[in-house]
Amino acid sequence: MELLDIVWIATQIFFVLSIFLLIVLVIARVASSYRVSFISESLKEYQLGIKRGIEVPKGHKDFMTFSYALGMMLVGNMNSEDRVYLNNYITKHKILDRLTINYHNAYMEPQKIYYLLLISLMRREESKDIYRGVLENIKKVKQKIEFKILALYGLASVCYKLEDMLEIYDYLTRMDSKKFISQKMSQFFFTLALRNINLEEIMKFIRHKGSKDVENMMVFCAFLYALPSIDMNEKLVDAIKYLQQSMPDDTMLLVATIRSIYQGGGDIHDLILKYHDDSRDVLRIVCSKIAIDVMPLSYIYLFVPYLCDKNNYVKENIIEAFIKHNLKAEDIIPILDERKSNFCRIKFMYEMNKIQKIKGS
Amino acid sequence: MEIALAFFQQIQYIYLFYLIITNLSTTAMTWITLKQMILNYFYANDLILHKLSQTDAYKPISILAPAFNEEMTIISSVYSLLKLDFKEYEILIINDGSSDDTLKRVVEHFNLYKAHIPGRMVLEHQPIRAVYRSHEYKHLMVVDKVNGRKSDALNAGINIATYPLVCCVDADTILEKDAILQGLKQFLIDRRMIAVGGAIGITNGSVIENHELVEKRVPKPLVEAFQVLEYLRGFFAGRVGWQKYDGLILISGAFGIFSKDLIQKVGGYRHTIGEDFDLLIRMRKHCFDNGIEHSVGFVAETLCWTQCPSDYGSLLKQRNRWHRGLLEVLIYHKDMLFNPKYKFIGMVTMPYFLFIEALGPAITFLGVISIIIFYIHGILTASTLMIFFLLEFAWGIMLNITALYLEIFTKHSYTRPIDFIKLFALGLIEPFFYKPLLKAELFMASFDFNNANWGEIKRKAL
């Protein structure tokens, strides 16, 4: 057989394959449109039906859509009465059992992921073992990150006590999680987890993890960033401050501490006064930014020398703080003169004039 | 004569090999894309990510839009950026020394004032003349600087940008409302992410009302309509596949989200013709060289709509520039070729770009010459001719049509039956007219390698 003959046969085969591909695409397209329109039509119908207590549909496709509709209701805003009703409904109709069987029987990874999502949306403690199974054993799958994120989402949704929180923290600090999951995503999981945990447990968690875990600073900071999502009382603020003091000096932790307390409405004056003149740019920027909002006039004067800061953001933040306190340039100049910073004065005058002009216009 | 014929016979084999590899790889990529689309269909992570975006666990982003002589489109573009569905972002329009009224229009329209904005000179660029801000839109800034080309403008924008992620867009683009959120998802899911790109669509012919793309239509002029088809094929049957195997080295300059930190580490955009191509390769190279685990993402949905050249002259100029950019970048990064240190990129992506994309036009040209010579000498068999015909045209038609189906399958941007019919018909004739024209231009571009001219493209008002 000559080379050309081989190429000729190969070309024919690939050509046929292309036609086959085209046919597959057409079928997929039709099936997909049908499914999308089915879901959008059925979703509302099912949601109304669930409220009326309809029977769970038997067909596979209907059940998937039905579960999704239920999940959408559960993650949406609803009162506690409705939540109790839905939980009872899930138990009565053994919806979780069916989803769990489907999850275990699913062969394709995307299907498994979809069932895992539906399970996580149900927010049931009984599903914890599935999540643990995913987090412990998942290795040889292509969509590893997606599985892990869903499992962690599921775990965070049913976090009610300190042990649950520690479990999530441990999974997030494992090497294979640290490599993929972003700090923001970790913060999201902690925000979910913190909803149902009481303050005492949170304080215990801070004491238990924070003081020991210097190697997982990124995850711990994600936890700190999630704290403002709950009502932070004075005790909690003190616990965070105490923790920060007891740990090695770390910029990431300091910034997270300051921001977290500030966003949670805690008293931050002492930390700002301590770090507003720190040699690290990021700390001075954070302190000066927060000072605009929280510092009383008497403290604002302390920031005057930093009008000459090498960092422009610090300068801008301080000028903004002056404007917020209605300070006039004449109030500031004597302090600048005292420090003999001529360049600084010129720059300051320029900025003040400009901003005041803008405000006036 | 015998030596010449023997030479052309070798050329024919190379041309044959080239056609098979091109079509095979495109078919394979299409399959991968199809699989990915089905996977995406099952993914419902969107629900979780939507919840996430409602919390404080998101990353703010700076959108950089360099503008050079964009007076026709700039106002619409700014409005489309202002309407984005995202919590915290800033918009930096960088007027790169436009000689038209780009700056004047934007300053007057948005009632901007001159402001003192700090910029860190981490990356070098031409001097900034002024920075403007808006009273009404606090997150809008306009940077007026001395002309220095797109790469220079982007470097200036990066220096001024406040946030850790930068989204580089062309000033004539209209972003989908959820474009930033879609791109950002990848950064939130995977912390190794260094850059994310998205598919680009064409605005020509579409209905734009109140600075928003309200109906996507296939443009009437053939030159524009062919490009719609070409973009579909390029994005859906190419980038998704490369991303799947972590081999993506090109994120279009029209829309890309990057880690600012890493851009600064590699020295920002280099002043080349293919600056977007070059940047991503340098970012990835830096990661490989320093043992940084990284990933590049691609959102297989049309996130951004841009204007394509509306006449053949502008189109050929643009493609000429793209090809010169490709050659320049490949030569600059030649040490990565067949280098196992760079894994899939070194062993597959870069060689593919060299042999298929860069040398393709020359191979095609010589291949066609060889067929003509063999025909003249009466030694061209019917089966040989049929093979070339099937490989060059019939298979190409199939791929065009599958790309079209992929678009409909994923986004369904074009909803009118007439658009679908039009694209289908264009898919049938494209390999006979449009493709050879572009290939001829790219072949010429190979000899015009030293030309650093950007080439002006005519724009229409949006």
Topology of this structure?
The complex is a heterodimer of chains A (361) and B (462).
Chain A: H1 3-52, H2 60-75, H3 80-92, H4 95-105, H5 109-122, H6 128-137, H7 144-157, H8 162-173, H9 175-180, H10 183-194, H11 199-210, H12 217-226, H13 234-246, H14 251-263, H15 269-275, H16 281-294, H17 297-300, H18 312-324, H19 329-338, H20 342-360
Helix pairs in contact in A: 1-2, 2-5, 4-5, 5-7, 6-7, 7-10, 8-10, 10-12, 11-13, 12-14, 13-14, 14-16, 15-16, 16-18, 19-20
Chain B: H1 2-42, H2 45-54, E1 61-67, H3 74-82, E2 89-96, H4 102-109, E3 112-115, E4 128-134, E5 140-145, H5 149-160, E6 165-169, E7 174-175, H6 179-189, E8 193-202, E9 207-209, E10 212-215, H7 222-244, E11 255-259, H8 260-265, H9 275-289, E12 295-306, H10 312-332, H11 343-358, H12 360-376, H13 382-410, H14 417-429, H15 434-446
Parallel strand pairs in B: 1-2, 1-6, 2-5, 8-12
Antiparallel strand pairs in B: 3-4, 4-5, 6-11, 7-12, 8-11, 9-10
Helix pairs in contact in B: 1-7, 1-12, 1-13, 7-13, 7-14, 10-11, 10-15, 12-15, 13-14
Q: Could you walk me through the main structural features you see in this protein, from its secondary elements to its overall organization?
A:
The complex is a heterodimer of chains A (361) and B (462). By secondary structure, chain A is mainly alpha-helical. The model of chain A has no long low-confidence stretch (mean pLDDT 80). In chain B, the strands form 2 sheets. Chain B has a 10-stranded mixed sheet, with helices on both faces. In chain B, strands 9-10 form a two-stranded antiparallel sheet. In chain B, helix 3 links the parallel strand 1 and strand 2. Chain B is globular and about 75 Å long. Chain B starts with a helix and ends in a 16-residue tail after the last helix. Chains A and B meet through helix 1, helix 2, helix 5, helix 7 and helix 10 of A and helix 1, helix 2, helix 6 and helix 13 of B.
